[in-house]
Amino acid sequence: SAVISQKPSRDICQRGTSLTIQCQVDSQVTMMFWYRQQPGQSLTLIATANQGSEATYESGFVIDKFPISRPNLTFSTLTVSNMSPEDSSIYLCSVEKGTGVFSEQYFGPGTRLTVT
Amino acid sequence: GQQLNQSPQSMFIQEGEDVSMNCTSSSIFNTWLWYKQDPGEGPVLLIALYKAGELTSNGRLTAQFGITRKDSFLNISASIPSDVGIYFCAGPTQGGSEKLVFGKGTKLTVNP
Asked: Which of B 33-62 lie inside 8 A of A, CB atoms?
């Protein structure tokens, strides 16, 4: 498994501002992922972040809105830019452990963002 | 894209009862993962299934990988109040084993 921490755990932000969320894992991992969970909904993948390369974004998510950094094998950040109330969600990072079909994903505790 | 249909959407049960929930898809999955999410927390991996027909237990939880590879179920026996939460099934999307698609979740309420 993996121990993952996220900062901040929650924040209330004004529209038009940006927030950077940090994700730290206790061991080196190749694959890190960022998800969004809107209120009462399931998890939706925003992007995949590999160290040393540009993040890969899913349909409906763009780098200008959700820039991601992955400076090393234990750390990543997600920025939610120019926020609007529609960005109010829980943002979760996860890491992949194992290989191929035997891989599993472990999640951080999430960052609960409220945009006013 | 691939979708996972999870049912029931919610369940209200009495403490001590057994619970069953399932996940189906029109696509084949090579791995099934079951997660539980407590309020204010991230999802926690409960059981991972890798082989069609596989039956795996984790304490009072039992999950099976359907023989057609298009479904999976999770059973909880003798439920207790701390079983309350949202249970999600998930599986890797086609073309990339690392990307997960999630079901919409089953919200479980256990009355003491």
From this structure: 33, 35, 40-45, 48, 50
Tokens of A16: 């038009």
Q: Which of A1, A31, A41 sits opposite B98 (nearest CB)?
A: A31
- The answer to whether B107 faces chain A, any CB pair under 8 Å, is no
B112: preceding bond cis by omega (within 30 degrees) = no
CA closest to A34 among chain B residues: B99
The string of pLDDT tens digits covering residues A60-102 is 999 999 999 999 999 999 999 999 999 999 999 999 887 766 7
**CA dihedral (A19, B92, A3, B109) positive or negative:** positive
Question: Are B38 and B100 within 8 A, CB to CB?
Answer: no
Looking up tokens 């080196």 gives A28
